[in-house]
User: Fold these one by one.
Assistant:
Number 1:
Amino acid sequence: LDELLTFTTALARTAGELILEGSQAIQQASASDIGEKKNSVDLVTEYDVKVEELVKREIAAAYPTFQFIGEESYSAGSRPPLTDAPTFCVDPIDGTTNFVHAFPFACISIGLIDQRRPVLGVIYNPFLDHLYSGVAGHGSSLSRAGGAPQTLPLAPARPLPSLSQALVAVEWGSDRTAPAVTKKAESFTRLAGDPARGIARGRMAHSLRSIGSAALNFAMVAQGGLDTYWEIGCWPWDVCAGIVIAQEAGGFVTGGKDAPHDGDVTEGILTGRKYLVIRAIADTEGETGLEAQKRIAREWYDTVE
Ligand code: IPD
Ligand code: CA
Ligand code: CA
Ligand code: CA
């Protein structure tokens, strides 16, 4: 995997250059240059497509037998089923909304799946020059501009006995149908301190954050800056690289299915520092990812103290 990591890291940096170039161009572009997918908040630009084409081309040249799953190819109808074969799973720009608004939290996310398990991940935010990488069984690290790679997490996690001491990332996502927005608003409110249940010490998380990039939420959990990240409805390319990086940093990940990267992810994903979720996951054996996740959510919401 060493050679693959070197290749993927270099590729992510090359893609990062194109993202930066694109960012300049998009700030000059007119509103009509910003495309919409399923609704007016599901944005796409020519750079999402260009970056994916670049990455796909380089992968095909270097690893012609590997499969490729990417967000924009998928949108264009190229939807290969996940097999046991090595498969690159790529989000060319994760955080397109941030990219469009020049909010400097957007990245390229390149994951590698083998035997249906994510085994390698690289996430690169070119705006901050932060490169996160992880290899199954070999840990994860963060390289920042001009510095040597640092092992993740950057500091040992302080024990967190409950959600009430946690900094929690959630996202609005692009599903803005009435039931989806209602569900998210309710769960976010509960996390922040639910008036209907009486706001008491210990019944609210320290605060909520929305970075606007699933991959960077994973990276931030791996780094130790976020205690947990929870979102309903991620796609494989949003989470594939992040899963490896967060797990290798000692984090816990559960998806809606046991394989949260099987090309058909519409269920929630949850990742967090081990200390926070360790009690709740102690007996996950025999449960599917979704069952475990629902139970964790129930426990968090009902017995936060
Ligand atoms: C989205 C971002 C966002 C998350 C969505 C993703 P995109 O990806 O990661 O933070 O809430 O679920 O789809 O469209 O910017 O690649
Ligand atoms: Ca998108
Ligand atoms: Ca994404
Ligand atoms: Ca994307």
Number 2:
Amino acid sequence: MRRVAISWQNGLITSIASATKSLHTTKDNHSCKIIMSPPLVSLDLPDIWSSNSNQYDSIPPQKFSNQQIATVIDGKSIAEDIRSSITSEVRRMKESIGKVPGLAVIVVGQRRDSLIYVRNKIKACEETGIKSMMTELPDECAEDEVLSALSNFNEDSSIHGILVQLPLPQHLDEGKILNALSLEKDVDGFHPLNMGNLAMRGREPLFIPCTPKGCIELLIRSGVEIIGKNAVVIGKSNIVGLPTSLLLQRHHATVSIVHALTKNPEQITREADIVITAAGVPNLVRGSWLKPGAVVLDVGTFPVDDPSSESGYRLMGDVYYEEAVELVSAITPVPGGVGPMTIAMLLSNTLDSAKRTYDFH
Ligand code: GUN
């Protein structure tokens, strides 16, 4: 049988004659032939924005007529409240049963952003009384070294959460490594079973990924209604875009996902009551992309050189803030918006995991 499949190449649709694939069952001699178009589950195209709005300083802000003063959602302060409750709970656990939660972090390589994130996570553990351990491996390390570090933490009963900082260097198989993580210690929620349970109605994941959980927490604590609202998630990464869209669906939003190959991202985003953007492209979301009165959460944290700052760089979000702030009803700043919430949710997931282990309520 000859079938025709569709493949996407550089945004063009080309028809190809697909090969057919036979699968045989081992149980009996009858071969069970399943016809599949090979590209059916995976059209492996790079998710890279070719936007000309990837400019840092040079675009003058456009003025919008229907001006409105936006509420700036103070993620830093909300995260501090949550961390303070976690500190009390960790103390109560220590006083009651003589145990504290433990988090292990594995970081491979020297990516500047990863090292900053990891340092902040370890510092946050120290400040809340959570025990932390870190394994740092060189860029060129073998997969077995990562798996061995992971296996040690899987076996360590004082560790209740394990985080493998992503992205990993290209030569490492991220899927294989995340699959090896103990489901009960997957505080990032990236194990396929946790992610699958998040996707399915009536199933409960053991952990919800930290950034999406932080975003929903920000919406709830800011009094933003989610049920029935049009939500647009920009970016479809495993870390943020995908789980955020799943979590918004669980909260009964009508969810659209806009990504690097979307034809009309501006038009679709302008329909949204809630925009959560995680593209990693500074100034991608201009005022013209936003419906007046929308609520905007900016997950982007792109480091750009800034000799005037102490660290030599500053973080830029996906949203052109000066334009958006005149249009929307609420917005998170970068930094000080979603970032601190991600860390607070990691601490919260680690505490929950330890409570589950010790049956401590
Ligand atoms: N890289 C960027 N964000 C995250 C995160 O939340 N968890 C992990 N493991 N890696 C990341």
